[in-house]
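Entry 12.
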Amino acid sequence: MVKLVATLGKTPGGVAETYVNLTSGNFVSSSPGKVNISEVVAVITKEVYQSFYFLQALFLCCLNVNKIGQIVLPFNDVTSPDEFIYVRESVRKVLRANDYLDFTGGRKAISAAAVLAGREVGARLVSTVIDQEEYLEMNRKFHEMKDRASRVLSKEECSPDFCTLISERSKTIVYFG
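Predicted 3D structure (tokens):
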């Protein structure tokens, strides 16, 4: 079973785009093909809880994935070598060889620590990019809908508007693996 572990920033779309692109085989890699992802885990800080709740809504409403795991960091950014090691160790505990580590979102030092953990265990490193103008539009939509999405607990509460936060033009790259 392959896991997707992703650092999460203030907008949730990137993780969903990575998931969609990997599971549909729509990514750049030396070994293309559809990836069967059995579990998704987001690396989050307290600062991005709203983004995490929206991510859960995106996965439930748009991708039919009912549960996303989380690694909750006790700080909002890495400000010391000990915090860097804490992130690396926390991520390393959940990653295995051939899992996917998406380092697209979040703070750079958190992503860097996660990448080191990924390399140490033999995970595949992944990033997803979208056009800057589209990103700004997605960010605007996220801020308009984030309060509604944070209250979604079941499929019946979903809005089709949520799915517009998943770019159809994103590009996912698998760097190692």
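Annotation: The beta strands are 2-7, 27-28, 37-44, 69-72, 100-102, 124-129, 171-176. The chain has one domain: 2-176.
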